[in-house]
Amino acid sequence: MSALARNNVHVSGNGERPMIFAHGYGCDQHMWRFITPAFTDAYRLILFDHVGAGGSDLTAYDRAKYSSLQGYAQDLLEICGELDVKHAVFVGHSVSAMIGVLAAIEEPERFDRLVLIGPSPRYINDGDYVGGFTREDIGGLLEFQESNYLGWSNNLAPAIMGNPDRPELGAELTNSFCRTNPKIAKHFAAVTFLSDNRVDLPHVTTPSLILQCQEDVIAPLEVGEYVHRHLPGSQLAILSATGHCPHLSAPDETIAAMVAFLET
Amino acid sequence: MRGLEIVDGDVGMNDDDLLHDGLEALYEEAPCGYIFMRADGTLIRVNQTFLRWTGYAREELVSVRRFQDLLTAPGQIFYENQYAPLIHLQGFVKEVSFNLLCRDQELLPVLVNSVQRSDEDGRPLVIASTIFDATDRRAYERELLAERRKAEQLADIVTASHDAIVRMSPAGVVQSWNDGAERWFGYSAQEMVGGQLQTVLPVLAEGEERRRIDADLHAGRPVYLETVGVRADRRPIDVSVGLAPHYGLLGELSDVSAIIRDISERRALERLQHEFLAMATHELRNPITVIKGHAQLLRRRAAYDERFVDIIIDQSDQLRSLVDDLLLASQIEADRLELRLQAIDLVAEVLAVAEQFTVGPTVVEVETPSNPIMISADRQRLRQVFVNLLTNAVKYSPDGGDIVVRVTNHEREARVAVIDQGIGISDDAIPHLFDRFYRVASTASDAPGIGLGLFITQRIVESHNGRIEVVSEPGHGSTFTVVLPLLHNAASSPSRQTAPLSS
Asked: Which helix (H) or strand (E) element contains residue A78?
């Protein structure tokens, strides 16, 4: 099956230069809806869902392949391959920032710029390294997630009646954004939050922008600074937005920082 | 509508005031928490119920803390990655489970429903949420999850089981079919589900046996039986079948689980044992009958007759050798074969044994090198090996023909080949030759023996770190070659050649 169908790839925009968006754990390509309008004229926009999320093909889920972020990076490169993407701007949120890093190390010619929103190469504290969480916290998250996926909690479970192409139709019945298969989501959470990609950072040759929020519990300032220190050719932009999703809570500021970076 | 006035005797309040008071009371004391927060989570209003549940004073929360500050680390991850994106994207969030961190550090499981109001440009202004105490529900969830996990584990066991585990309706229609069932019967789940279990278990076909089984199942008694199943390739398979009845709400038989186990090996062993007993009895009985008969003859005639005594001695020897074989086999079985190893000359041993076989009609020709071949062996056991092989060679050469025993010396091993021109052994029999109690089918009825000779022979050779090779062509004869390791340096050390030959 093609990567385009597998990953529910949507291509839009009027420009030539590709800009590819990768959503993080817990959501799907809908999370870019406040950002994409600003780039639609100048770029060729490529959006997709990771396998297991949104409108991706759940049957393509392979537990072994996706038991490390490398599997997701491979998907990203396959999408780039099928669309013949070169010199792209990659925009990745949270765990997908690291997925982009892995892909850019593997096939650097595909990417000119990396925009990393709230990246963290390791979420769990390790000696002097402060990731922000303990292993127990991650165990708690998985347990927690299970509770939110039980039959009666229709919140984040897949919308059975939803129309995948018109998610807004089902919005009144259930939460229709960020649909995800519970079992896969749990595995993705484990893979994400137990990942350690610190050793990969120095191998990146693509210029990058790190967008760091205030008071982000998922990727605290120390982590942003760590990434900046170890990622060659990176810029660190500290936003006034709070939380972990500035592209949702402060899209204007996020866009401004991206534009400034892309113009340099 | 003025009734309230009469009850309260409060003449001054109108309906709107009352309604306002009522709403205020309902808001503050509702059976759920109400909280209002800014888009960044900062709390701007909470009701009394929420304060009571969490143990905080109003001024400790309002404008001071954010909603996510009341969450544990896992909750915060969930809040940032799922709750916050959702509320931003769709303007509401339904039924999310959180654990609230209360003032006393206790956790309160809650269910949160939120709705967001935005300004004209779509910028979020306020998020209003209802908070329900989900303690009971969470406990139930836990139970449910534990049950689900248990069920999944059971399902895994069923899938991975080596036995066939299937479920059928009371009418015998297959409902589930595991990998074990596919392995033993050769039918896939796709082929069997919806079909009749009696396809593979004819015992379940209409009839007396089936009626008995049904009666037991309806009476709530599990059924165990041993029967013969039929595989997809029509071959029979010995199986044990355990049937466990399951019941519906009204106590009626709803379905039946069957655990079907392949017992062909056990059955084969049982058959073997049975055959052995019959054979051993027969083999032991024959010489006893002969001995007793000749002894009776001697007594009746009251005269010495050398021929009779010879027969008695000969039969006694046979009896003794049978009993010796049985004893030895049981020692081997119990792994208690003891060897008295010493350096001996293989050539001399082979010659000594061959000597015993020169009396019959068959010619035994021995080809040996002129030098001794020294090996480390238990003399008595080693001789038994060659006795057994030569006995077989003679026994299976009914039409005579020469038997050649060829001893050769190779670099690190000695080889003794016993070559006959007898009836030979078929290809499919060769792999079983050394099995306990095995007897080649076509010859079993003609030649005497209890099928222990080659079993013992091979075990003795193996216990000497050697091996036996068999080459055979039906109708043209067989060659059994015993390969034994040489005593270290013995062949090239002339000084030791004579050393242990005596005794």
From this structure: helix A69-82
Q: Which residues of A are catalytic?
A: 94, 216, 244
Angle at B377 between CA B376 and CA B379, to 5 degrees: 135
In whole angstroms, what is the distance from residue A50 CA to residue A56 CA? 7
Which residue on chain A is closest to B88 by alpha carbon?
A248
This prediction has a pTM of 0.62
Query: Cβ–Cβ contacts within 10 Å for residue A214, how many?
Result: 13
Q: What is d(CA B362, CA B334) in angstroms, rounded to the nearest whole number?
A: 37
Q: What ipTM, to 2 d.p.?
A: 0.86
What is the rounded CA–CA span in Å between residue A182 and residue A58? 11
Radius of gyration (Cα) for chain B, nearest Å?
A: 45
Contacts A–B by Cβ distance under 8 A: 111
Tokens of residue B326, six digits: 């049985």
Supply A58's token pair.
């759940």
Distances (CA, A) of B457 to B253, B328, B343, B415, B420: 58, 10, 20, 15, 17
CA of B168 to nearest chain A CA: how many angstroms apart? 28
What percent of chain B shows pLDDT beyond 90?
A: 50
pLDDT along chain B (503 residues), means of 10: 47 83 93 94 96 96 95 91 88 88 94 91 89 90 86 89 92 93 94 95 92 92 94 94 91 92 89 80 85 91 87 89 84 82 93 82 85 92 91 81 90 92 86 76 57 86 93 90 81 39 34
Per-residue b or e along B49-61, where b marks 16 or more CB atoms closer than 10 Å to that residue's CB: bbbebbebeeeeb
CA terminus-to-terminus distance, chain A: 39
Two structure tokens written together for B329:
């086999």
Token pair 């009993």 is at which residue?
B323
Task: Give pLDDT tens digits for B320-365.
Answer: 888 888 888 888 877 788 889 999 999 999 999 988 887 667 788 8
Residue of B76, B83, B71, B77 whose CA lies nearest to B127: B83
Chain B residues within 8 A of A177 when measuring between CB atoms: 85-86, 89-90
CB-based contacts of A62: which residues, under 8 Å, 6+ apart? A71
Cβ within 8 Å, pair B81-A33 = no
State the pairing for strand pair A88-93/A43-48: unpaired
**What six digits make up the tokens of A76?**
């990203």
The CB density around residue B99, as the number of other CB atoms within 10 Å, is: 22
Quick one: three-class SS letters along B397-449? Answer: CCCCCCEEEEEEECCCEEEEEEECCCCCCCCCCHHHCCCCCCCCHHHHCCCCC
